[in-house]
């Protein structure tokens, strides 16, 4: 990581030592909190608040990971794509075929497919979507709460993608290279 000076969580003080930050397996704060983001107390605090709210939402953890894979692929974030592919396989127990499909905003389950398509459409259209996008998700059985959470996950994933790209975070997982970088 060369974009920001590393912060050691064990010795960080004050706002830099954001509670809950540090290395953890699973869908928790990752490198942006233990390798650099601590220099800026706002990002980890905001991440933790949004992640906490979404973690207790209605979408299941496997869908969180598939949304993260879709967004990381689109944004070209190798760190996040690698991390969420690893977490998706090892923590959320998602099949490798489904993780690979999520890179193209595809899923075998129609409802999950609709949520991935919605998230991808929102990202690619910079939020300027017409009524057809959420209506298609509703048509596949998605609720308004789930649709709202898709927007929240997209925002969370864009935050971590952009931060990790800017911070040039060292990849500590098996590398999954975004196709746009290949």
Detailed description of the structure:
This protein has 182 residues and is an all-alpha fold. The protein starts with 30 loop residues before the first helix and ends in a 15-residue tail after the last helix. The chain has one domain: AhpD-like (Up-down Bundle), CATH 1.20.1290. The longest helix has 24 residues, at 144-167. It is built from eight helices and no strands. The radius of gyration is 16 Å and the shape is globular.
Give the topology string: H per helix, E per strand: HHHHHHHH
What is the strand content? Answer: under 5%
SSE class: mainly alpha
Termini, distance in Å?
20 Å
CATH architecture: Up-down Bundle
Short description:
The chain is mainly α and 182 residues long.
